[in-house]
Amino acid sequence: MVLGWIAAALCVALAGAVVVLHRRELERMARFLTDRDPASNERLTTTLPGGGFTRIAQAINALMDASAQEKRAMLSQQKAFQRDLASLSHDIRTPLAGAKGYVQLAQSEEDVTRQRADLRMASERLDAMQHLLDQLFSYMRTTDPDRTLRTDSVEVVSLLEGVLASAVPQFEARGWQSHVSLEDSLCVPADSDALTRVFQNIVQNQLAHAAGAPSIIQEGHRLVFENPVGDAAALDVTRIFERFYRLDTARGTAGAGLGLAVVRELCDAMGIQVTAQADQGAFRMIMRFPDATLDAGRGVSR
Questions:
Q1: CA distance 232 to 277
Q2: Is-above-0.70 flag for pTM?
Q3: Helix ranges (DSSP H) in the chain
């Protein structure tokens, strides 16, 4: 009987000691988390054996790693955004300064013909600045988290034909006879306005950067937009859809590098896969539509 009481007392004492050790370990871990420098790479460790505390330390370390990685990503995005805004600011100031210069020339010009020419040049530069601002506004609207797209059954070929018809004067001004081959009617669930914007941006990108007449070919559920380029190797297709991405040689153009970023954002929102390729002197954008319905028998080729 006495031995039983002694054994029970030892068990209670041992359990109390374990509780004290666990409490001290938890307090030590809490102090580490409270006093730890957020910029430090120091890891949480445990001094007690057993899987419980080890798993707690591992879970906390994983959370700290994820938080540090998120902060690094946010910092990188912030730096990239600031760099992009600096580039856009330069692109806006350039035509603005040119417009102001031509206005000043017009004010001091006595010859009416030259004065009109100066004002026309000023107007062109203001138009270029307006184009940059319009692109920026379009991108901001596209990336608005509160924006919702309306999904209807959209006839892709008719929509694309309308965009191409409006661009005919621009193609003709360049002397380009584009090759368009649309073999089937393609109905897809999409937002008509958003898909029109996608086609407009792609066609305008061809007009701005192609080295020759482009082609648009339908291959079942895919649309392939292709155009020759001066130096395909200079294109980084992994960055084509990035915000503000442009080749240095394109800095003199009126684009802000937002058109294809809008294309990617809208296509992702509508579940349309869009990819880019560049090789052998050609640049291609490929759109693949999900859940599409082909209406065979209707064909357009020109």
A1: 9
A2: no
A3: 2-35, 51-108, 112-142, 156-173, 192-209, 259-270
